[in-house]
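Example 499, ligand zinc ion.
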Amino acid sequence: MITISFNAKPASASKSAAIAVFVGDDASAVHAKESLGNAGAYVAQAIAAAEFKGGKNATLTLLNPNKSPSHLIIIGLGKAADVNALTLEEAGATAVAAALAAKVAHLDIASALPKGVKVDTAVAAARLASGAKLRAYAFDKYKTKTKPEDKPKLKTVSVIASALDKAKKAYAPLAAIADAVSFTRDIVSEPANVIYPETLAAECKKLVKLGVKVEVLGEAAMKKLGMGALLGVGQGSVRESQLVIMQYNGGKKGAKPIAIVGKGVTFDTGGISIKPSGGMEEMKWDMGGSATTIGTIMALAARKAKVNAVGVVGLVENMPDGNAQRPGDVVKSMSGQTIEVINTDAEGRLVLADALWYTQSRFKPQCIVDLATLTGAIIVCLGSWRAGLFSNNDKLAEQIAASAKRVGEPVWRMPLGDEYDKMINCDIADMQNVGEGREAGSTTAAQFLQRFVNNVPWVHLDIAGVAWQNKVRFPVAPKGAVGWGVRLLNDWVSENYEG
Ligand SMILES: [Zn+2]
């Protein structure tokens, strides 16, 4: 656990400490020179020798000839005029990554910034701290034999700020969001023998203490509602399927809520259409969409957002079993529409079909955003750098895309259309759960979902490529669960619904 604080001055002399300072892309002037003591000339010489140009997130770690602090970390911000809140968040995160690599116990982050940076100093300090907190996350609870020399050494990070009170005030909501991101990463990282539908529903109940109303529906209740699509997916599992509804009302009484819906397949073997064994362990994070849904409601409630929001997650385990759903089975969804299950591994859309229909019919939301690790095809299209965005509403799509850009969780809009919709028509039921062969697999999945949103303004985010990173692509997250989408949706609410 790494603690983050704000201080007026760097920590007193220590043998195991680093100070991080930032430079623009000219790298000519190292700022916070006073923090470097008389090492300034040495740093300038090292920057020249290393041909360090100060590009965004470029890092140069130096041993301090003066020995205290032991390390000097120089981090590039790129062009000063382009520095924004996100640049600083990523810079704070990069500083923590460098301090972890340098194995120091303490990190001071100098918030003095190069000339030309337009961000308010208190906001800058808060964003540096937020990035530091996001990157300081670790999921190491199951490692019992790490040698002392291999354990992370970093214990404390302090951001050096002039206007301490203003910085702390700006940081408070960011810290709440970062905590929600950590919570999201925790539940994504947990293995499927720990997080399964009932235990994930129990995690949702933790939001009650933030003033969120949490309801859990079991299989009997869902059967009464006619949720044959969702229930079919879980019928081969000994774990009982769950639907969790989280209501946070921070907005005007009676105002229509925004709705977030998440796919929560706590483990996906593929069912009878079983997946190959290589990499199947990764299917523990096939509940990433539900994790982001829960984390977003947590963030909104924790920072007391002025919005009414409802989060709905469909939680199932997809297993092969004597009672498992078969390819060719026809199920009836809550909407009344029937589905031929051609491939039992295309199960996320079956879960979402009922979760989406339930959400729009009960809450009459002004819009719905769903998140799902839905298709491998989206990774073929976009790699692991962007999520696929599908929408029936240009304005909503643009709002989400703008937030995505601001928080560094990029999206790319993908097409929907009648020609794709026809691809899921079926001979014996209203639709089938996959299209034709391998064509447009992410879009046919989205078309399937669109048949269950009942024309409510809707965005579907296919996060199969971004929910987890096997190497660091998003600088504010270490390897593993990214917690992708919590900061995005929080920003979206804050920019569009709290005004
Ligand atoms: Zn699947």
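Summary: Residues 268, 270, 345, 347 surround zinc ion (CB under 6 Å).
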